[in-house]
Amino acid sequence: MASTGINTMQALFAFSTVLHRAPSPSYSSRRLLNSIAPKLWSAVIIGDNCSEKKRTICKSHGSRRQGMAVASSSFASSNNNLGSDFVVTEQIEGKSVLLSSPSFLVESQGEEDDKEVSFLKPTTWRASIDFKWIRENKEAVAGNIRNRNSSGDVEQVVRLYEQSVSLSQEIDKLRAERNAVASAMKGKLDLARREELIEQGKQLKEQVAELEGKLAVLSERLQQEGQRIPNMTHPSVPIGSEDVASIRKEVGRQREFTFPVKDHVELGLALDLFDFEAASEVSGTKFYYLKNEAVLLELALINWTLSQLLSKGFLPLSTPDLVRSTVVEKCGFQPRGQNTQVYSVEGTDLCLAGTAEIPVGGMYMDSMLPEASLPLKLVAFSHCFRTEAGAAGAATRGLYRVHQFSKLEMFVISRPEDSDILHEELISIEEELYSSLGLHYKTLDMSSEDLGAPAYRKFDIEAWMPGLCRYGEISSASNCTDYQSRRLNIRYRPATPAVAAAQQPPKSKKVKTTLPPLQFVHTLNATACAVPRMIIAILENNQQEDGSVVIPDVLRPFMGGLGLIKPKSR
């Protein structure tokens, strides 16, 4: 069995090396390795004594496992055909046995003869979470989690962080001892003393390797738990469910009709603007065709809104529809969670973007921006795709809740001290746009339970939709502070402060300039125009008794001067 195990290990190493050392391993290659690796592990570890369970949990029966160790130079030198790609090994009956590759981590549970080892699939990316700050503000973080009704566990995060700090300190101590032993061996020593130091160094090396293996698992668990902690909350945010959201502003009033009001579906079908039936046959429910003047209205909304934002200094973008799942996760969305709103492309690591916020944030991933470029104001046109899992009832009728739509999204990258002011600016821009269209709306300061994980504060705008006899959300504006930038790794370097002339040294002396440390930016996003709901609001509020619909004045130049959508003559 030993020979079979080594051959299997060699084969796996050769396969793993090709995949992991490639410049950019494909998703299918990584998936293939992840699918076959657990079966190879069970063959390598203890053959018939290892039963494969869900997530590959192998339990020893009667064999005493002597602790965990990281594959090190000594292991590599004694197993030249394996190398050092493999992360974790374990001593079983006196033999080094492979437990995981870079795609897996190992977690031990239980004691002595009943020790259980499970393969922990590590995260594919790491957020720069300030765990020290979380520990120092544990009570505030715990209260924030309760207020948001979140699933994060701050006690677990603090406990794992303290364990990892303690373990790191222990490893540093052992490394210092090992360095001291190495220094002691440089002098003239008798044979007995040299052998004693060699053995001591070997033991220290093994101890460090064992603790590094434990630290790798601990760090992975800490990262996974830390990513469940939501952003902190602005002190002015109402605490509770959606019902306690406060009204920030109300503009206009509900129009009084002298005739029976129709909803946008009745109006659109009568004016030959939509075709839901054909779309259902072609694509499924919650899809639609826009026809005739509705197409002109969509383009007019996009072009008019874009022209307004360009005049305010926003830079235009058109974004990809497909993004990597890691970028979706870094922006605070769960592409493969329960009841996810994200479409995933089977067999790939790609997802359909639900909002331009995701590809725009990803565009600046791993960037270091000059302070002079901030704030960076962008407006992105994109198609948005959402599963609308769990949505049902009258609220989903017609265009209100669909799987695909066009949208203009504002996205801002700023210095931390500017984000609150810019948040006010974004919501003011939205209010200005919707006032220009003649809509009656109210702006809400959303409650703590309705913020989602990324938002520090969020304003929603709801427009009156008379055909639906209720207010409907048409936009939102969120300040995500550094929640997304810590995951996307978007930073800036503050400008170097000027040195007073009296403190400047003579010109003949060279002075080493100390640059200020990098800081994470703040990110904000706000809806400028979500086309389907804007069409709903315009059709229902501007309908006439004869079934026609008046086009808002500001849109007419973008519709070739058309001011009225009339019923089609038969």
TrEMBL record:
UniProt xrefs under SUPFAM superfamilies: Class II aaRS and biotin synthetases, tRNA-binding arm
* Chain ranges of the Aminoacyl-transfer RNA synthetases class-II family profile domain: 309-552
Among Pfam families, the record links this protein to: Seryl_tRNA_N, tRNA-synt_2b
Acyltransferase: is it a keyword of this entry? Answer: no
EC top class, in one word?
ligase
| Keyword annotations | Aminoacyl-tRNA synthetase, ATP-binding, Coiled coil, Ligase, Nucleotide-binding, Protein biosynthesis
Q: PANTHER family in the record, alphabetically?
A: SERYL-TRNA SYNTHETASE (PTHR11778)
Full protein name: serine--tRNA ligase
